[in-house]
Amino acid sequence: MGLNKSGELGYTIGYRVNGVSALFGPKGNSSGKLKLTAPYYMSFVDGDIRRDMTCAISQLGTDKNTNEFKESMLGNTPFALYCSKWDYRKMMENKTWYAAVLASDQKVSSGINVVKMRYPQILLMYAEVVNELHGKDAAAAGCSLTATGALKEIHDRAFAASDKRETAWNELMQKEFFDAIVMENAWELAGEGVRKYDLIRWNLLSEKIDEFKTTYTNAVYNATYPKYVNFKYRTDNPMYIDMTSLVFGNKVGGEYQNKAFFGAETDDSSQKNLKVNLPSISSGLNNAVKNRYLLPIASTTISTSNGKLHNSYGYSD
Predict the structure, then answer these.
(1) Which residue range or ranges hold the RagB/SusD domain (predicted)?
(2) Is 241 within 8 Å of 74 (Cβ atoms)?
């Protein structure tokens, strides 16, 4: 793609920047077409660095009260977390990319190419195939790497300390191996445009969407999500939140500021996220026909086929 000429990674998909600033230019209202969810955020094992690399629970914008451009917490937005894999702040490390960010108005044509396949995706596919053909602990012909070894390579990379890696790995391996592959796929590849098609290939799309809805509903009714996220701003640069200071649960007080988090839905009188927003997600998937993720054939295509083509899956012509 051409830098500053095409491409919306960092804009349509990415960390949200909302407002004019000297650092990032007149961005207006960037990002937002791809969102992640509370059940996904909460599914990460403690210490997995991919959670914060993938899920953004904050945004940059102009404060309505102070008119300051600074980072703020999103709050209780369980179906509207931004994907932080593409972030203007990371572009600052590359002079050419950063110049494109500053030169743009309300939309950045970043020129960042879509990654077609990363090495972890290859390892996941390898683990899946070898497990099906030889089992999880046997190597494929001509290769010494087992399915377990391939999956462990991906999982280990996500943890800094060896004790945390081993603990997390042992917890993961208590599941059936294929289920472990499915989960690792989610933690590793979210926001990259491949998981939906893997779920379709596994015939798990409908099941996983239903599972997400059930998980969120149960968490609200059982009050298992933290009600607040407590945080401090960085002392060296008070424009940004100190992400190492986060404390989830009840209000901490003292030097901490706080924002309502996913658990606030439990005591919310309207419970709009639970009762309005959640049912609207993939609402047509299992109505007329279960797992109806295919789009209908266009009426113009049907009419010009002279009776050869017709819609199915509950769609009319």
Answers:
(1) 71-315
(2) no
